[in-house]
Design goal:
The chain has 301 residues and is of the alpha/beta class. It has a single domain, classed as L-arginine/glycine Amidinotransferase, Chain A. Helix content is 33%, strand content 20%. It has ten helices and 15 strands. The strands form five sheets. The chain has a three-stranded mixed beta sheet with strand order 2-1-15, covered by helices on one side. Strands 3-4-5 form a three-stranded mixed beta sheet, sandwiched between helices. The protein has a three-stranded mixed beta sheet with strand order 6-7-8, sandwiched between helices. A hairpin with a 4-residue loop joins strand 6 and strand 7. The radius of gyration is 18 Å and the shape is globular. The C terminus is likely disordered.
């Protein structure tokens, strides 16, 4: 069985900002000098990949396709847990062409033995992958966003497929259209989030589930800097360059922040988490760790 720490990235060869399906997208800025913009984007993508490899991850690269610039954000392609993948259905027509290409890629991963099962959501049941479905290993549940891109009725399908509890979070502002833009689960059990992106009921749900000492509320500036759109690997956090206040808070809690310039992708409304998809997430690893801790406690008394 393949136990490598794996993460997916999608080639930036056809990335550009040529339409607007969220408030962050700035096609006019890209069009001012598309050659230079493309060069910068490729350099930033390579820097992110190098940083992830430096932290011990194997990077699987999905080939790019012309006319599908947002394919560079594979977090929206699927939800993956315990070597099982549930593939997304995109709400915006501009992204729907990605579905068949990601399906072919994930089928290839299955043939290689990287995954055991690959399924696709039913047509029209919009759910945009790990961008709206974030695994919380500490609590053994999914935080699932809905209301902007993913449909509320998709949540039950996710819960049924993975047979795991879910916590439903309603997204209420177009600027934070996927949960990963405003909500980050950290390995120490903390939740880093931007509360105004969630409905009052969803904010109350987070408060009920997560103790106050484990909730880190980001400012509007920090959320706009895409600092919450981060990849957490143990005590390492790979993110778009974080504002000083947030970096200090995270480092005081024992995290090492690896800031990467991802401004080219922020022009399209994404950053480090959007540009990646973990293939190695496992509920069993968390359960095994909990058993080990219980055993240490038992034998130490």
């Amino acid at each position: 069985m393949d136990h490598a720490r794996r993460i997916v990235m999608s080639s930036p060869d056809h990335y550009e900002v040529c339409y607007s399906i969220n408030p962050w997208m700035k096609p006019d800025e890209w069009a001012a000098d598309p050659v230079a913009a493309g060069r910068t984007a490729r350099a930033q993508w390579s820097a992110l990949g190098d940083r992830l490899r430096g932290l011990g991850l194997t990077v699987e690269v999905v080939p790019a396709a012309p006319g599908l610039p947002d394919m560079v954000f594979p977090a929206n392609a699927a939800i993956v847990l315990d070597r099982r993948a549930l593939l997304a259905r995109f709400r915006c027509p501009e992204r729907q062409g990605e579905e068949a290409l990601f399906l072919a890629f994930f089928d290839q991963l299955k043939r290689r033995g990287v995954l055991d099962e690959v399924r696709q959501l039913p047509q029209g049941l919009f759910q945009e992958g790990a961008g709206d479905c974030i695994w919380d290993a500490r609590r053994q549940l999914f935080w699932v966003g809905y209301g902007q891109r993913s449909l509320a009725k998709s949540v039950d399908h996710v819960a049924s497929f993975f047979a795991r509890p879910v916590r439903r979070l309603e997204l209420v502002t177009p600027h934070f259209y996927h949960l990963d833009t405003c909500f980050c689960v950290l390995s120490g059990g903390e939740i880093l989030y931007y509360p105004p992106a969630l409905s009052p009921q969803s904010q109350a749900l987070v408060a009920a589930e997560v103790p106050a000492e484990l909730r880190i509320a980001a400012t509007a500036e920090e959320a706009a800097a895409f600092s919450l759109n981060a990849v957490n690997i143990g005590r390492d956090l790979v993110m778009a360059s974080p504002p000083p206040r947030l970096k200090a808070i995270l480092e005081a809690r024992g995290y090492h922040c690896h800031g990467v310039d991802l401004s080219s992708y922020m022009l399209s409304g994404g950053a480090a988490y959007c540009m990646t998809l973990r293939l190695d997430l496992s509920s069993r690893a968390a359960e095994d760790n909990a058993v080990a801790q219980d055993c240490q406690w038992t034998f130490g008394t």
